[in-house]
Amino acid sequence: MPRKQKSVLLCVLTVCITSLVVGVEEKQTDEECADLNNTTWQEYRRHRVKLQVQYLLLTRRNIDCAQVFNQESLTETQQQSSYFNISRPTKVIIHGYRALGSKPSWVKQLAQALLRAQDVNVVVVDWVYGASFAYNLVVENYKDVALQISVLINQLQEHGCKLESFHFIGVSLGAHVAGFVGTLFEGKIGRITGLDPAGPMFKGADTYDRLDPSDAQFVDAIHTDSDYFGISIPVGHVDFFLNGGKDQTGCARSRFASILVYFPVYGYVICDHMRALHVYMSALNGSCPLVGIPCYSYEDFMKGRCVDCAIYKGTCPTVGLSENCGITVSPIPREQKLFLLTSSSPPFCSHHILLQLEVSPLDKSAEVEVKLMTDNLGTERRLRLQRDTTVYRTVLSHPVALCEIYSIQLKNTGARFYRQGDIHIKSVCLSEFPSLRREEPICVNNINIRRGAPWSHDFVQVCG
Ligand SMILES: *[C@@H]1O[C@H](CO)[C@@H](O)[C@H](O)[C@H]1NC(C)=O
Ligand SMILES: *[C@@H]1O[C@H](CO)[C@@H](O)[C@H](O)[C@H]1NC(C)=O
Ligand SMILES: *[C@@H]1O[C@H](CO)[C@@H](O)[C@H](O)[C@H]1NC(C)=O
Ligand SMILES: *[C@@H]1O[C@H](CO)[C@@H](O)[C@H](O)[C@H]1NC(C)=O
């Protein structure tokens, strides 16, 4: 073989091998899924807080395997190697404080729930490096994260994305990051949802520094730990306070949380705080409606003083993705507190039953226990009866609708303590709210409950 030919052949072979290797490498990177970063205490100590932000993209085409998303992805969009679709709306997920430097485990679940509900781009903001360990230092970082996000949004705008097509979903501190992005775009972003927006260092903050209704065209928030990690003031157009917004059913009390922050029990302690996220994800699944009722305070709500949505012309706002939470009145009222009761596990929905009790005047204080029964599901409430009050109203959370309640039981539970003899009840009435159909409450009249002798009544009714 002449020397020249030999070298040509070698050259061809080299090219072949090179392209083969490159081909394999390309295939490998294609199959590798991007993930959120994580950090350790040691690493953190060595480098101090370095803010590093990366973005991950999930769409219906790569629902299980995130792509890294950055400036280059935008030019790649035209070449189809990035799945970002400029003509679709974009959901931006922002996590919050990471006490232990671990990546948030719920991100994929939330992204997938969003993608099941809508065909959108889901961009995940990963700022784990800047969000870990010392809370006060993390709070110093949150505006820088927002600034970096705003650069990306500007680039997306240049490629034709509209500001109103962005919906930011921020968890805890992430809600205030989203709020500051909103401030930078003068409230022109479509929507911001805050999932238990962070409270510590934000409650007294200026609206410029925290999430507030001026940050987007529509701002909704869910509050589940407002006495601890969450914020207690309304920050959106609508603010859903679940079970009063402080302590959630099925969660241990988070009172001593700050001492425990650096210990493994942390995950358990933030149960109240993370409930907002879990309820939101459940709402995205759409298995049942989570409806909020406007009221001045939780106390008023629990006393049955707020049972309709007149300020929204009768349509009560729902947790989830529906436009403006289903509100059709314009302009949308701001900082409206909404209350609802939930159950302790998915899908979290429960029915609001208003109980009204009218008693004949008593000689002494007394206590009655009211129990609503459906199959083996029961809801009970103890009511303190005062000498000078004859009408009582209270709200109960029940797993099924009023028309499915089998029976009501009343018991004189305070007889031994208060020494009150029989209690004469003029009427006990149950109704469900909010109700579109103006149903009459179901009532039972003229009941005597004696010491140690529970009274019960079976309802004969079928859901229509
Ligand atoms: C963060 O994760 C990405 C992969 O998703 C990786 O490319 C990058 O190097 C990581 N950053 C650091 C600082 O480890
Ligand atoms: C942290 O990230 C590294 C590199 O991305 C990965 O190998 C490791 O499993 C991660 N650790 C945890 C606890 O997720
Ligand atoms: C991008 O989205 C538009 C609108 O939903 C759709 O018509 C189009 O096919 C999408 N493009 C790609 C490449 O999926
Ligand atoms: C939502 O639905 C999916 C699929 O049906 C299920 O895997 C997931 O657990 C549900 N999530 C919640 C929070 O209900």
Please, could you describe this protein's structure?
- The protein has 464 residues and is α/β, with parallel strands linked by helices.
- The chain folds into two domains: 3-340, Rossmann fold, CATH 3.40.50; 351-458, PLAT/LH2 domain (Lipoxygenase-1, Sandwich).
- It is 28% helix and 24% strand.
- The protein has twelve helices and 18 strands.
- It has helices at residues 3-31, 41-47, 71-79, 107-117, 128-131, 135-158, 173-184, 257-260, 266-269, 271-285, 298-302, 415-418; strands at 54-58, 67-69, 90-94, 121-126, 166-171, 191-195, 218-223, 238-242, 293-294, 336-340, 351-359, 366-374, 377-385, 391-398, 407-412, 423-433, 442-449, 455-458.
- It has a ten-stranded mixed beta sheet with strand order 2-1-4-3-5-6-7-8-10-9, with helices on both faces.
- β12 (366-374) and β13 (377-385) form a beta hairpin.
- The radius of gyration is 28 Å and the shape is elongated.
- The chain starts with a helix and ends in a 6-residue tail after the last strand.
- Mean pLDDT is 87; it is low at 1-29 and 257-265.
- Bound molecules: 2-acetamido-2-deoxy-beta-D-glucopyranose (4 copies).
- Residues 38, 102-103 line the site of one 2-acetamido-2-deoxy-beta-D-glucopyranose (NAG).
